Amino acid sequence: MIQEIRTYRIAPGSLAEVEKRFGEAYEKRKKYSELTAFWHTEIGPLNEIIHVWGYRDLAERARIRAEAVKDGVWPPKTAEFIREMKSEIVNPFPFVPEVQPGKIGPIFEIRYYTLKGGTLPDTMKGWEAKLPERIKLSPVVLAGGVEFGTANGFVHIWAYQSLEQRAQVREQARKTGAWPPPGGADRLITQANKTAALLAVLAPAGVAQTPARVRGSISELIGPVLMIKTREGPTVQVRLLEGLTVLGVGKAVLADVKPGAYVGVAAVKQADGMYRAQEITIFPHMARGSAEGHTPWDLTPDSTMTNATVEAIVVRSAGHLLTLTYKDGELKVTVPPRTPVVTFAIATHALLAPGAHVFVPAVRQPDGSLATSRILVGKDGVVPPM
């Protein structure tokens, strides 16, 4: 069995439409072969979708792809959004459990290594000895050498219930000696990581779900269902998915916004063409690069959201002027003196208490219900301003 990992960098702000079109086309494509996995990145290199396809061998891959193209069901109509494409054929290590459809995650970490020439066999021996103990802590989705793609490449993908669990597992593995295998660092030339927060739909992939942001305060937690009194008035139910990540939102000040910081700025465009900030969220280092770009936002009807790096700051009595840079552009934003400024960090479920203010990046399911794998909760009375 081989696995093909296809990574597409897409235009900022196009993810929802790309996933929608991909999902629609996949409904016809899956009769030829089903996805192993489909992900989009949340932390690390942003604006990427990653789809993984399993085949018995290269001959089957060629036959299936040719049939799908000939019958007009593939590829999906997403070419206008694609900025870069990469494909790698991975030979999984023979002792790694074969990928099976199921509910694992929802946080996935993809690690890409370039090994020194001729060291893959030794790497494989080390993994074979250590992996049985390591997968008792969290499952490995895929691990193997790159046959076609990056020369001397080595890819491994791990599933976690949350970012918090990832940190706990990695610490426990180091303390107990379960991981990593010996000698690994000596064989490395390069090491890259999609980091720890990849939201995923494991095979078979479904039709893309619709984002639905919920702002309000917690009324009640009933099992896995959170009752939220929204800022608009009605109470809604949001199902908390297994492996929920809780992020605690704390107060910061404008002086904490420094050149080089990665921020999210909700803003509105003024009559003179300048943007006025409505709130600023300072991202922690682990979340740097998240959802980079300038997109519409729903804080108010005319809001935008810019996730970007602070290039420069001009201090003025009437409000600072920030220059924000992102992959495809630059934006200047004025920040009135009383603009809310916050930051966030991994927190525990103890914050999910009645009265706590929340911001929930939920998705609307096919049956109309709301579900989420991530929730931002205000600490010490803070109202998440985003």
Helices and strands in order, then pairings?
Layout: E1 2-10, H1 15-29, E2 35-41, E3 48-55, H2 58-70, E4 82-92, E5 107-115, H3 120-134, E6 140-148, E7 153-160, H4 163-176, E8 188-193, E9 198-202, E10 210-222, E11 225-230, E12 235-251, E13 262-269, E14 275-282, E15 293-296, E16 303-314, E17 320-326, E18 329-335, E19 341-347, E20 357-364, E21 370-378
Parallel strand pairs: 12-21, 14-18, 14-19
Antiparallel strand pairs: 1-3, 1-4, 2-3, 2-9, 4-6, 5-7, 5-8, 6-7, 10-11, 10-20, 11-12, 12-19, 13-14, 13-16, 15-16, 16-17, 17-18, 20-21
CATH architecture of the largest domain: 2-Layer Sandwich
Q: How large, in whole angstroms, is the Cα Rg?
A: 22 Å
Number of helices: 4
Structure summary, number of beta strands: 21
* Termini gap: 45 Å
Q: Which CATH top level class of the largest domain fits? A: Alpha Beta
Approximate strand percentage: over 45%
Helix/strand/pairing category: mainly beta
Percentage of residues in helical conformation: 10-25%
How many domains in all? 2
Order of helices and strands: EHEEHEEHEEHEEEEEEEEEEEEEE
**Model regions low in confidence, pLDDT < 50 over at least 5 residues:** 196-208
Biggest sheet, open or closed, and with what strands and sense?
12 strands, mixed
**What overall form do the CA principal axes indicate?**
globular
| CATH T-level fold name of the largest domain | Alpha-Beta Plaits
- The average pLDDT is 88
